[in-house]
Amino acid sequence: MSEPATILSVTPLARGWGRLDRYEVDHVRRDGTRQTVQREIYDHGSAAAILLFAPAARTLILTRQFRLPAHVNGDPAWLIEAPAGLLDGEKPEIAARREAMEETGYAPETMTFLFNAYMSPGSLTEKCACFLGRYTPGQQAASGGGLAEEGEDIEVLELGLDDALAMVKAGSIVDGKTILMLQALALRLAAGEAV
What we know:
single chain; alpha+beta; Nucleoside Triphosphate Pyrophosphohydrolase; 2 domains; 7-stranded mixed beta sheet; 4 helices; globular
């Protein structure tokens, strides 16, 4: 589909940590007819995430933190995730490195771009740049745990790759970006690619 959508109106609904707006949009359907729809879109900016991996030990650094939407949805509120955060005007590589240090205390030794992914394209503008970072076990530069002034309370976890993949299968890791990065890492390893 090459014909762009036409935004007919934008109605602000809420302003807080992000913006919630109602859009009225006209676009061409696959059959060539035109359609006008209303959609609510939440915009809090785009993000970067990093999966820290130690190839020799086959271990990962992940985090566990409170996520209100999971709780509201009836699921456990403390999710296991790869370090991630909003870009806040930075390039994705810089934001990913910053988040690794803030959340885990580990500075990535090397970083490889994996992919960009929309986290929930039906209602969120957030696009997440995902990276694979190398770390050395025991070389934590700071305690991590997040920024107290941002209300973060983050537990740092070191897990084996096989354990993390088993946790995905068991439903213990349910964060989308983390699952995608774990799968990308597993595919790279299976293909014999350097990580």
